Amino acid sequence: IELGDYGALSSSRPSTEISDNDIEQAFTRLRDQAARFDPVEDRPVQQADSLILDLTRQVEHNDKVDKSTPTEPERHEDIAVEIGASINPPGFDKELLGLEVGATKEFTLSYPMDYTPKELAGVKASYSVTIKAIKSRVVPELDDEFAKDIGSFDSLVELREQIVENLQRESEEAADQQVRANILKQMSGRAQFEVPEVLVKKETDRRVEELARRLIQQQVDPMKANINWEEFREQQHEPAIEAVRSALVLDEIARRENLTVDDTDIDREVARYAERAGRTPAALRARLEKEGGLHRLQTSVRREKAVDFLLSRTTIATE
User: Fold this and answer.
1) pLDDT at position 122, please?
2) Rounded to two decimals, what is the model's pTM?
């Protein structure tokens, strides 16, 4: 692996200043998370309502649609839908507005060609929907009582101070990650070598398995998730190449600079992961040993040391 000169790296670091708008948005998110939904019986569906409904969807194919998309009717009972949610199909909310509990409505929607997921892009879908319950969304007032309800804060001022502290920490971490990404991109661009296809395939497999694992955690059957897995694999090919290239570059830097990982490094990393997972370091270490994860952890720590080494040689300008 020909690394080129890694003694003349430079990167800009994004500003980490927190604005009043950032704080305002954080308050809005907290209020949204604390919102309650009260049952409604005396009016029809309105914007921001949460609905419980039964739904049947029949997808119709056209010439531009992947023929692997299921054509059998999909039936769902007692599903929750929030009017105005970004995940709702285009035009879906409009068809439900004005309906009352017990009402059933049939309608057809056309998905745009740039719709995500792509399996539904350009298709028409027929819906049959029955409204079973309507709930009105009530957002709490932004006052001292709200601060007391969501945590151990005596006042709104204390809550605001905590929000500013959290936002500042997140901003610093995001800026650090941006610098690290810039450095890796520079090094990968300078390095001259052929990325082994077997490693690219392995990384692509890992990404596919990770998506399937996330779906299972969300109680979604990967084989029924309307995902074109071959297309997804193709989309992951180039990112996998870059990931493997960056990893090999860091491994080579660690080798050349004699960067090593000792037991203290491993113990520190295990303790950090354990705290985030809400487990004891001993329990997490036992699991890693059983699953062969300590070697992966050691490799990860060694690569982080390689990044830190590059950072020590990087000229960083603050935006």
Assistant:
1) 84
2) 0.69
